[in-house]
Design goal:
9 helices, four-stranded mixed β-sheet, 373 residues, Chaperone, DNAj Protein, Chain A, elongated, 26% strand, single chain, Helix Hairpins, HSP40/DNAj peptide-binding domain, alpha+beta, three-stranded mixed β-sheet
Length: 373
């Protein structure tokens, strides 16, 4: 079976320059790569065909021979289908391999790790905002060696294995893999006489102090991102970020639900029956709560605008007061007598609507479910 024209294989003209050839080959190599087309023999053949075409056309000498004498000229001169790849081919194939596998073949200095710090706040701090000072672990240059990692403080020598690149290439068949240099572990330098303080790392563990501004309205679970305040990156790579996780401590009076606040307000039996006014606490001071006549336990009174203004904007929430009617204790003899007299006058259903309704339901239950057999 005759071979196809190499220019036709790559889909370029005979006047195509190196950049056009490289783009065409990258496109085909990524499309027909065997790892992207497992078990597809046609794709495998197209992949090999594109490899062969690019190997020839990317080499000026082989391309000249091919342009003059075609496939036959290459076979006579041993140009195409040879045992190895040229430097240019290795470069482009390494790039394609990196693209296929998400950039894994192209190593490089790693970005610093992100850090997380949990900050406990009172409800007042979370609602109104605050500024807190924190201390977090960090990595700094070793002072004795000035961050060089060497005993004399001078720059470390270049790694002879990777020549300072921090990466080495390994060719396995068609594949050209790029991986971290095993000699210097990606640093690009080799320390033969390490600093005793940092043991050749050039870095030491330390702590740094940061001022964190907490905006008003945050709640448990919210995160504040401090860009660049995480761990330092390798070899001048960007540092990571610091995430401050908010944890709001329980409050002795209030419970928060989104932008609303809830509190329990004890009310005397007299105030609940006759109505009146109570002074109740809020996060911003005091407020007057008007208790309506004949108030029952569990009733919610809403004080608008005395809740929380959300950190992401929106209307301020409300304060909801849950009324609990208290039964008086430690009564004197006279107070007990007065209550008995009052009780004798409260026999009618209109004075105890809930109790009357409950008694009616209980009587109906007994009549329906506890009948004699």
């Amino acid at each position: 079976m005759s071979k196809r024209d190499y220019y036709e294989v790559l889909g370029v003209s005979k006047e195509a320059d190196d950049d056009e050839l490289k783009r065409a080959y990258r496109k085909l190599a990524m499309k027909f790569h065997p790892d992207r087309n497992p078990g597809d023999h046609l794709a495998e053949e197209r992949f090999k065909e594109a490899n062969e075409a690019y190997e020839v056309l990317a080499d000026p000498q082989k391309r000249e021979v091919y342009n003059r004498f075609g496939h036959e000229g290459l076979q006579r001169g041993g140009g195409a289908g040879g045992a190895g790849f040229g430097t240019g081919f290795a470069d482009i194939f390494g790039d394609v391999f990196s693209d296929i596998f998400g950039g894994g073949g192209r190593g490089g200095p790693r970005r610093g790790a992100d850090l997380r710090y949990t900050m406990e706040l009172s409800l007042e701090q979370a609602v109104f905002g605050t500024s807190e000072t924190i201390r977090i672990p960090t990595v700094e240059d070793c002072e004795p060696c000035h961050g060089q990692g060497t005993a004399d403080g001078k720059p470390a020598r270049e790694c002879t294995t990777c020549r300072g690149a921090g990466q080495v290439r390994v060719q396995q068949g068609f594949f050209v893999l790029q991986q971290t240099c095993p000699a210097c572990r990606g640093r690009g330098t080799a320390v033969t006489d390490p600093c005793k303080s940092c043991r050749g790392a050039g870095k030491v563990r330390s702590e740094k102090t940061l001022e964190v501004k907490i905006p008003g309205g945050v709640d448990t679970g919210d995160r504040i991102r401090l860009t660049g305040e995480g761990e330092r990156g390798e070899r001048n790579a960007p540092p990571g970020d610091l995430y401050v996780q908010v944890q709001v401590k329980p409050h002795e009076l209030f419970e928060r639900d989104g932008s609303d606040l809830y509190c329990t307000v004890p009310v005397s039996i007299v105030t609940a029956a006759l109505g009146g006014e109570l002074e109740v606490p809020t996060l911003s001071g005091k407020a007057t709560l008007k208790i309506s006549e004949a108030t029952q336990s569990g009733k919610l009174f809403r004080l608008r605008g005395l809740g929380v203004k959300p950190v992401r904007g929106g209307a301020t929430g409300d304060l909801l007061c849950n009324v609990v009617v208290e039964t008086p204790v430690h009564l004197t003899k006279k107070q007990k007598e007065l209550l008995r007299e009052l009780g004798e006058t409260l026999g009618e259903k209109k004075h105890s609507p809930q109790a009357s309704s409950w008694l009616d339901k209980a009587k109906h239950f007994f009549d329906e479910h506890l009948k004699a057999p």
